[in-house]
Amino acid sequence: MTKAVVLLSGGLDSATVLAMARASGYLPYALIIDYGQRHRAELRAAERVADTLGVAERKVVRIDLAAIGGSALTDTGIPVPEQPSEGIPVTYVPARNTVFLAVALGWAEVLDARDIFIGVNAVDYSGYPDCRPDFVFAFERLANLATKVGVAGEGFHIHAPLVRLSKAEIIERGSALGVDYALTVSCYQADEEGRACRVCDACRLRAQGFAEAGWPDPTRYRGAVREPSPPDPT
Amino acid sequence: MTKAVVLLSGGLDSATVLAMARASGYLPYALIIDYGQRHRAELRAAERVADTLGVAERKVVRIDLAAIGGSALTDTGIPVPEQPSEGIPVTYVPARNTVFLAVALGWAEVLDARDIFIGVNAVDYSGYPDCRPDFVFAFERLANLATKVGVAGEGFHIHAPLVRLSKAEIIERGSALGVDYALTVSCYQADEEGRACRVCDACRLRAQGFAEAGWPDPTRYRGAVREPSPPDPT
Fold first, then answer.
1. How far is A180 from chain B (nearest CA, A)?
2. Cα→Cα distances A10→A31, A98, A132, A157, B211, Å
3. How far apart are CA A113 and CA B54, in angstroms?
């Protein structure tokens, strides 16, 4: 089997990617990044997903992105928005996917793997710049200049199989491959037990995906059902 | 003054880059990466260099590259070579400069800076792939796809002012700018006090640079002067 490093966040998208990599015959090495994210339940979800779907190895690497701050996901002083907003939201973590892919590239080189999977998505997503196909292509080009393997003329391939799928399509693909989405946590402010807030961007996109796919949503929400407040009329 | 993130390792090259960035009128923000390197004295040297040359801020970010291993610099089970070797040496840290630039990019975005300085060098160096001009250009291109700033059409610039200089030329430039190289530590197996081994690649390139520049070498070596053993005749 061909080894592949799979970036695994604990969310819905990367769980689907892991299932797709397995179904394509890759032997997955799950890379889980503890970057100081406020939603710690995501890390435990990633470990559960890896163990349930099956991987050759799972590795948690700590990277202190909270030290540079600048995001609601790493700086608890910045609240997670509970309303849709225009433009790139404050949950954007500067250069996060660049950092993640860089570490994945390093591990791939150590493992002598040539394939890296990442669950970025440019359709139903939050508008983060490092989720677009051009970003993925540019990273692949960089990878082949940055490494011993590249120098040797052998190529790395960055797989982003979700990049042009809607959230509903992602859920359909994953469900067909047997992914149990009850294991995953998408919420940016999930509590210790992984229960979701229902109102952040990640919760909204996830719920909309299940609704559009016509699948029952297995997400565990905390507290009473709370309707999002109406948007500010300004 | 224009803000710039300067990657600072504690070695000779990045100290020179910091001095060059200052001399060019940038306000430097020194980024020091604790990646689990075995030569911990390098980190203290980086802090000394930042404090002596003067920076707007210095930040140490921890990234656990030792978790992925694969290098003599992060895995103490792999000895640092004490003889010159062919090809890319075991001191190569997979994807290190990609990871470092990614974190620098994140911090630059948080600081609203557009300029990043890195002391890579493709002349008197150890043959690492991520020290070449093409790598730097590819990262710059990636940076402008990966970030909010890039989306807004404003460009990041990755400065690698040493990339085509010899070690002797680097020392001449830095000395002219008042860099005190006694503050710096290049050795891959420096002891706790920053004293160098004299025989690793980094020590050899450094000593050769001072000799060629005709400058007194301020490096503190440990123990008695030890001649490198003759190369294995096989």
1. 29
2. 11, 18, 20, 23, 54
3. 42
Angle between helices B133-146 and A96-111 (to 10 degrees): 140
Residues 6+ apart with CB under 8 A from A227: none
What residues of chain A lie within 8 A of the CB of B102, using their CB? 95, 98-99, 101-102
Q: Which residues of A touch B103 (CB under 8 A)?
A: 63, 65, 68, 95, 99
Hunting for tokens 């793997």 — which residue is that? Answer: A113
Residues of A in contact with B150 (CB under 8 A): 129
Tell me the whole-structure pTM to 2 decimals.
0.91
- Residue from B99, B136, B141 to probe the interface with A (highest A Cβ count within 10 Å): B99
Say if the Cβ atoms of A97 and B68 lie within 8 Å: no
Ordered structural domains, chain B, with CATH: 2-213 (3.40.50.620)
Q: What is the ipTM of this complex?
A: 0.90
In 3D space, the residue among A217, A164, A216 whose CA is nearest the CA of residue A187 turns out to be A217
The rounded average pLDDT for each run of 10 residues, N- to C-terminus, in chain B (234 residues) is: 96 97 98 92 96 97 92 90 84 92 96 96 82 93 88 87 96 97 95 94 94 95 64 54
By C-alpha distance, the chain A residue nearest B88 is: A148
